[in-house]
Write a structure and sequence with these properties.
Layout (H helix, E strand, L loop, with lengths): L4 H49 L5 H11 L3 E6 L2 E6 L7 E6 L5 H12 L6 E6 L8 E7 L1 H53 L15 H55 L5 H29 L8 E4 L1 H12 L7 E6 L5 E4 L1 H21 L4 E9 L3 E8 L6 H5 L16 H12 L3 E8 L2 E9 L10
Parallel strand pairs: 3-4, 7-9
Antiparallel strand pairs: 1-2, 1-5, 4-5, 6-8, 9-10, 10-12, 11-12
Helix pairs in contact: 1-2, 1-3, 1-4, 4-5, 5-6, 7-8, 8-10
Length: 465
């Protein structure tokens, strides 16, 4: 209850109302004290008028007049003459004098607070102006105990009234907040829960209807989010179904093409010149088809294990890649070189890093072969305080514009005819799994450079994109 929005509004409202009442209380109690003293001055003035009407008053009547005015004596100044009008014994000396003729607000508040916190009964002198110009001033002496008692009673009544006002205001605001804010917010939360439980059910999509501007904006934002997410979920489901179908077709097609590849190996032994001339083209076409099927199956599995990171030497991995790719050279003047420092070690998964470098070197080699030009593919590496850097460069013709537009997009980023563009996509995902990045550093007529960055720190791994 208290942790809810309306509950906290209830508490805050009560606190703020009480704070406002406290700020009002101090000036109010000071004003009440002044009114109380003025009332005693006025009573004393009325009592002194009886003496002016009759110069001879017996002691009992004088004592009764002073008792009704709640003062000990009354001094009236008329025509520059200070005259003791009524008097009685004062039980103790006068402790303070209050002049009410021209007091400042700060002085009144100070005297009021001081009187509230002083429980002792004291005798004070009060000076003021007579009512209706009946003299120059009037002066009385009185006790402070009745004054303090009256001030406390008045203060308690103010605090009680403030408490009632704060409770009523808080309850009204509580009800208003629940109707205007909490209920619509709960409605939005309900839509979110229903949509999360069944995204395919259109009844869980919110229909904005709030009258409050901010809530209306929240409902419209949720509607847009739900609509876009529903479309993405449907697209993902269709892609998953399509991917499953493609994986099955690719699996069966790969088996068929593998058998065809074995047959073409026998065709190459034919003595017919025409067959021998066409056989290499057939072999290359079937090899590309088999490679495409294998890449599609590898990409569609989407079950790549996380990398097993440990410190490994890089040179043996790059040497294995170079040796493997040299076996695939088709006669073009392509040189494969490794310029990795022999003692360089880095933190990586050796199998996954081998696949990444192999993909990059193979792409570079195939780019040179397709262009029918000689060149060099080089693997180099270096390190600094924060990262290890691996570069795979070639002196090929550079990447075409179409490949640059969708370089790391599956099935769209192929740089050569027949390529699916999955090699770079898979390699980038593997490198991101290491917390690093795979980027195209440069490309052009002078060649292409891909750069792998692997972080040295285990606590600075980048999130997967």
């Amino acid at each position: 209850m208290l942790n809810s929005l309306s509950g906290r509004f209830l508490i805050l409202t009560a606190v703020f109302v009480m704070l406002a009442e406290v700020l009002i209380f101090v000036p109010s109690i000071a004003r009440y004290r002044v009114d109380y003293l003025h009332d005693r001055l006025e009573r004393a003035q009325i009592a002194s008028m009886a003496l002016l009407a009759d110069d001879m008053l017996d002691s009992d009547l004088e004592a009764e007049l002073l008792r009704n005015a709640e003062v000990f004596n009354v001094v009236l100044r008329r025509d520059e003459m200070r005259q003791l009008m009524l008097s009685s014994p004062i039980p103790e000396p006068i402790s303070e004098t209050y002049d009410l003729r021209a007091p400042g607000a700060a002085v009144l508040i100070r005297d009021a607070v001081k009187r509230l916190i002083t429980p002792e009964n004291q005798i004070v002198r009060v000076i003021g102006a007579p009512t209706r110009d009946a003299g120059l001033l009037i002066e009385v002496t009185m006790e402070t105990a009745p004054l303090r008692t009256a001030m406390l009673d008045y203060g308690l009544r103010i605090l009680l009234l403030s408490a009632v006002i704060s409770v009523v205001t808080a309850l009204l605001l509580f009800v208003a907040v629940r109707i205007v804010l909490v209920r619509p917010i709960k409605g939005v939360v309900g839509y979110m829960k229903r949509y999360a439980a069944a995204p395919e059910d259109a009844r869980g999509i919110i229909q904005p209807h709030a009258g409050v501007t901010e809530l209306r904006e929240a409902e419209e934002a949720l509607l847009q989010l739900q609509t876009e997410l529903t479309q993405l979920l449907r697209q993902r489901e269709r892609m998953a179904q399509l991917g499953g179908a493609v994986a099955k077709v690719s699996h069966d097609l790969r088996n068929i093409l593998t058998s065809a590849q074995l047959i073409t190996d026998r065709i190459e032994t034919s003595e017919d010149p025409r067959v021998r001339r066409l056989a290499p083209k057939l072999v290359n076409s079937i090899s590309r088809a088999v490679s495409l099927c294998e890449s599609t199956l590898a990409f569609g599995r989407a079950e790549e294990p996380p990398p097993a990171l440990r410190m490994i030497p890089l040179a043996p991995i790059t040497d294995d890649v170079i040796d493997s790719e040299r076996l695939a050279l088709t006669g073009c003047d392509v040189r494969l070189e490794s310029r990795v420092p022999p003692g360089l070690e880095l933190r990586a998964d050796s199998e996954q890093l081998f696949r990444v470098i192999l993909n990059l070197v193979r792409n570079a080699r195939q780019a040179l072969e397709v262009a029918h030009r000689s060149g060099t593919v080089t693997v180099s590496a270096r390190e600094d305080d924060d990262n290890w850097w691996i570069e795979v460069s070639d002196t090929g013709p550079g990447l075409p514009a179409k490949a640059l537009e969708n370089l790391f997009t599956p099935f769209r980023g192929g740089a050569r005819a027949g390529g699916a563009g999955l090699g770079l996509t898979i390699s980038a995902e593997l490198v991101r799994g290491h917390g690093g990045s795979l980027e195209l550093a440069s490309t052009g007529p002078e060649g292409t450079v891909f750069q792998i960055r692997l972080p040295r720190s285990m606590t600075a791994l980048e999130p997967l994109a």
